[in-house]
């Protein structure tokens, strides 16, 4: 039986504590002072120069092959999990069409907006040029209803990626504006006979979907299922700054602002015992399940997906999580190995059996296995939520594979260990450049993630501040940057950096032991801490935000700004 939708973001501080049964005390947090350098700063580049982000265009190689695609955003009525709802789609489906390119190709995607709401498209995980990132009010103007826009970039990095709207994305991604994009390598490290892409998604029920549509139609954003406003919306209260197109918040963390942090919820103690899941971890996994009416694999929430394969076939399964929740997945019936994370191959991955993969929001896992002689292997969920377990699954093998499936008891699945990516694989890939924890870094940034209360409800903060009142991380071309992340909250925060990959150096103070791990989205559980590093090698204005899109809409965002790069667009159009 499905539970009632969650009510947290629609309530004030006292009501939320009451709703939690008083289990979470709140402590005072002194609100930060408004700063003129948030969310962007006026910092000159080399020789005192300034460059608008719109000038950072792709360098298209002469004679390169061009892969052209068209995405048409349009309303469709879909039946998901037995319930009919009005959705937003690309080319009539959700997910939208799988886009497949080859490494080195030029990708050209023309987007037509047939919706009544504006949108943009972000190319999640692909290091596109600064002008092509798809963030409204930062890298482009939003695509207005009836308008079109063409994105162009070179597919330099092979791997599994995805695309989605970045305008009011809690609503627009939630209602269907997402899809996968695969860049095939020139020289596959792990070739397979069968290659499938599965996009996981959580769908609202029909009444919630209708309310989300009404929220978009009214020009609001940050919808919460209880009828409140979960976030800061399009930041319409922002005023001009210095002629640079940058805006400052009038209601961010200033005393008396409507989104001023009044209290902060305490997080659990910092984790010290490796990747053994805690009670707080399981509670955080299940925290959002009641928001959703169905859990889909591609567009199927019936739990009967079958992917054709024959015994002996080597299968590559590309798993893309386009939702807001973290899901626990595993393969039953065959040993498997994780050959890539977030599009990046892992050196010498080992074989696994009876291990759960915590696939966070916006993350991608590429796994490989051989179909057994019995005829099928099965992707199954070990989520705490029974509906998710019933619907997030797929059989890979012969037709009728589900008739032979022997379910694994939920209690057995829950006891299986979690995949530890910090001690997996061995060695490194040829030519792979890596960071060291104790090398020289030009930029060091501490990122403390907390959850607080404002007059409008819950807000999600970085270093005690709520976006847009968070000063940027300013970098110069070529800088080595290290970020220390601490999750001092009871919730999961999948932190995504636009335009760059980062290497994970430590978790909970312990150095990574196995193959170097490069990600663009890091799922940070309650009490966890990480050190990550990246090279500032892609000029632009880049968001670094939580990819639980409700959290992003409610403040958990910071900008990575290259010195001298300015925003020529009106930032009052900026939206998650």
UniProtKB/TrEMBL annotation:
SUPFAM superfamilies: Cupredoxins (SSF49503)
Keyword Transmembrane: no
A Pfam short name: Cu-oxidase_2
Domain Plastocyanin-like: 75-186, 459-560
InterPro entries named in the record: Cu-oxidase-like_N (IPR011707), Cu-oxidase_C (IPR011706), Cu-oxidase_fam (IPR045087), Cu_oxidase_CS (IPR033138), Cu_oxidase_Cu_BS (IPR002355), Cupredoxin (IPR008972)
Signal peptide: none
Gene3D superfamilies reported for this sequence: Cupredoxins - blue copper proteins
This protein's UniProt keywords: Copper, Metal-binding, Oxidoreductase
PROSITE patterns for this protein: MULTICOPPER_OXIDASE1 (PS00079), MULTICOPPER_OXIDASE2 (PS00080)
UniProt-listed PANTHER family: FI03373P-RELATED (PTHR11709:SF394), MULTI-COPPER OXIDASE (PTHR11709)
Protein name, per record: Multicopper oxidase family protein
């Amino acid at each position: 039986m499905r539970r009632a939708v969650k009510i947290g973001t629609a309530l004030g501080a006292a009501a939320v504590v009451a709703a939690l049964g008083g289990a979470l005390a709140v402590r005072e947090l002194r609100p930060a002072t408004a700063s003129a350098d948030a969310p962007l700063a006026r910092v000159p580049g080399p020789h005192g120069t300034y460059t608008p982000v719109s000038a950072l265009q792709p360098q298209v190689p002469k004679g390169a092959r061009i892969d052209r695609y068209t995405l048409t955003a349009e309303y469709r009525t879909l039946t998901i999990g037995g319930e009919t709802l009005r959705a937003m789609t690309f080319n009539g489906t959700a997910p939208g069409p799988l886009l497949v390119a080859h490494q080195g190709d030029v990708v050209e995607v023309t987007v037509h907006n047939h919706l009544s709401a504006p949108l943009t498209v972000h190319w999640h995980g692909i290091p596109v040029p600064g002008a092509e990132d798809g963030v409204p009010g930062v890298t482009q103007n939003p695509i207005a209803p009836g308008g079109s826009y063409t994105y162009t970039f070179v597919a330099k990095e092979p791997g599994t990626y995805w695309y989605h709207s970045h305008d009011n994305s809690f609503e627009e991604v939630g209602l269907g504006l997402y899809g996968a994009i695969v860049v095939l390598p020139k020289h596959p490290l792990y070739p397979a006979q069968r290659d499938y892409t599965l996009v996981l998604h959580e769908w609202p029920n029909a009444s919630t979907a209708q309310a989300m549509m009404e929220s978009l139609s009214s020009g609001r954003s940050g919808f919460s299922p209880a009828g409140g406003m979960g976030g800061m919306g399009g930041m319409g209260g922002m005023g001009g700054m210095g002629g640079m197109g940058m805006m400052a918040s009038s209601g961010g963390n200033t005393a008396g602002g409507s989104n001023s942090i009044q209290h902060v919820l305490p997080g659990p103690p910092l984790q010290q015992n490796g990747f053994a899941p805690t009670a707080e971890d399981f509670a955080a996994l299940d925290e959002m399940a009641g928001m959703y009416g169905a859990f889909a694999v591609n567009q199927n929430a019936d739990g009967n997906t079958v992917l054709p394969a024959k015994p002996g076939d080597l299968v590559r399964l590309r798993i893309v999580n386009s939702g807001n929740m973290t899901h626990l997945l595993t393969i039953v019936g065959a040993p498997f190995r994780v050959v890539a994370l977030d599009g990046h191959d892992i050196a010498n991955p080992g074989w696994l059996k009876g291990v759960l993969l915590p696939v966070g929001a916006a993350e991608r896992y590429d796994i490989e296995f051989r179909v057994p002689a019995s005829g099928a292997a099965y992707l199954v969920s070990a989520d705490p939520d029974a509906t998710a377990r019933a619907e997030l699954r797929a059989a890979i093998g012969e037709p009728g594979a589900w008739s032979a499936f022997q379910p694994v008891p939920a209690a057995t699945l829950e006891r299986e260990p979690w995949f530890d990516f910090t001690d997996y694989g061995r060695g490194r890939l040829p030519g792979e450049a890596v960071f060291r924890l104790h090398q020289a870094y030009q930029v060091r940034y501490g990122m403390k993630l907390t959850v607080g209360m404002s007059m409008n409800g819950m807000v999600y903060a970085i270093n005690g501040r709520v976006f847009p009142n968070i000063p940027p991380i300013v970098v110069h071309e070529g800088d080595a940057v290290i970020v220390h992340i601490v999750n001092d909250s009871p919730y999961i925060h999948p932190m995504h950096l636009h335009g760059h990959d980062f290497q994970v150096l430590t978790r909970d103070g312990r150095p990574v032991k196995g193959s170097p791990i490069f990600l663009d989205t890091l799922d940070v559980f309650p009490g966890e801490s990480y050190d990550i590093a990246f090279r500032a090698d892609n000029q632009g204005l880049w968001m670094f935000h939580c990819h639980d899109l409700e959290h992003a809409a409610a403040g958990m965002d910071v900008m990575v700004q290259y010195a001298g790069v300015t925003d020529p667009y009106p930032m009052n159009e900026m939206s998650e």
